[in-house]
Amino acid sequence: MASMNKQLLSRASVLLFAFVILLHPLRLGAQSAGRVDFVALVSPSGGQPEPVRQMTFYLLRKSVEEIRKEVLQQAPAVDLDKFVNGLDVSPELKTWMKKHHTVRLTGEDFTKSLTPEDIVGVPEYFHAYMEHNEAYRGEGFPEPKFTEKEKKSNPAKYQAQKEKYEAAVRKFIAAAPSSVQGMDLELVDVNPYVKWGSVERKDRQSLETRVFGLAEERYLVARTTTDLEGRGSFPSVPPGNYWIGMFGAEAISGDVHLHWDFPVTVRQGETASVELSNLNAAHSSAMAQNSDN
Fold this sequence. Notes:
By secondary structure, the protein is of the alpha+beta class. The protein has 2 domains: 32-75 and 196-288, Immunoglobulins (Immunoglobulin-like); 88-191, no CATH class. Helices cover 46% and strands 18% of the residues. Strands 1, 2, 5 and 10 form a 4-stranded mixed sheet that branches. A hairpin with a 7-residue loop joins β1 (34-42) and β2 (50-51). α2 (64-74) crosses α10 (193-219).
């Protein structure tokens, strides 16, 4: 009987020891985990903060911007210069577009940016300027004193007269800058801005799809959707450095559009409380910086 009691006691001790061993890492895990609680608010210009309701936020091991850079290293964004090279326009206009890094040939800012040298030196601009000012010809507007026949019969005279005429046009433009206003209306058929916008949008959509795919595959820790008060949480998060980010969405209030890519540190057994607002919203990402070109 005593022997049986000893055996039972021995088995009970072994089971108790095994239970403690199994419980030990679970207790350590429970103690080591932390938590992230956040509230997201967006304020319109001159208005009061409003909660960002029913939007998905992600907890990531790497910032969204760094993930985007990683994707761009593998497959760079569409190149403006390469797009310009494929256009059916003069070499001079291509050079101008590359120099100014824009294909937007419309609007007051565009016409104001043009110098007399630009207008005379780029065939499309010169043609548009002359067409736009056709009504003012004969009222002090320079007139050419050379003919196309002289280009073959007397090339030296032709070139000299052409240069003199172009100098006179540049001088006229400088003296009458208002004559440039509205010439962009004559460039509608040449302006590649709409086409570039379409190319850029498709590339941007493709980029964001790849960024989200890489984030989900390698860096995603958790996701949550904010409640009606703009609050969300990420429970049971191992200690470490993380980022609260968004993909393919913006918090909008009036004229303000925001997204976040905010760093947060989780410590053992603690709750990190974060307020996301206009003040700590992320800057426009690289994929959108050329949208006004």
